[in-house]
Amino acid sequence: MRDRATPTKDTDPRPGDRREADSTELCGPAGYLVVWHQGERYVLRVTRNDRLILTKEP
Asked: Which residue ranges make up each domain of the chain?
C-alpha cells in the first residue's frame, strides 16, 4: 500500500469515521466488487488502464 497524506481538519471532517481499503483487496482477482447502496446495485471495477470506475447496474 502506498503512503497516504495525513488527513487534516479541512480535508476530512470526521477523521474518526474514516475507513480505508486497498482496491486490490476489495476487487480481488476478478477485478470487481458489487456494492449495494439504498437498494441499488453498483459495480466497482479496475480498468485495463489500472483506474477505478463505479457504475450503476440496472
From this structure: 24-56
pLDDT in tens, 18-29: 889 999 999 999
Q: How far apart are CA 21 and CA 9, in angstroms?
A: 21
- Average of pLDDT values for 46-54? 97
Domain 24-56 has CATH 2.10.70.10: yes
C-alpha Rg value of the chain to the nearest Å: 14
Residues 6+ apart with CB under 8 A from 39: none
Q: What is the pTM of this model?
A: 0.68
51 DSSP 8-state letter? -
Q: How many CA atoms lie within 13 A of 8 on its CB side?
A: 3
